[in-house]
Amino acid sequence: MAAYRLKFTPEAILDISEASEYYESEKPGLGRRFKALVKGKLILIKESPLIYEVKYGDVRFAMVDFFPYSIHFTVNSPAHIIQVHAVLCQYRNPSKFWKGFDS
To answer: Which of 22, 34, 50, 84 would you label with 15, given CA atoms 20 to 30 Å apart?
Structure first.
């Protein structure tokens, strides 16, 4: 079985960067911990992307450990590509913060 490749939208990269900066401003080292946990979850997603629940349309959803954030992604199995669309705080309405959200 071929390995999956991760691709990120510019918005997903910005989501990770902004959340990391926020947590780092709250407590030194917390932003780095956030990034490390996002990276760890992305590794798990790459290994078994289809185990994660489909939340809307064909978008899957994986919670980041310790932080109230979720990774929203789609899987193109034939091409072995995982497209990460957003990394969003669970306290926010995704339709307001993610242009691609379509419930």
So the answer is: 50
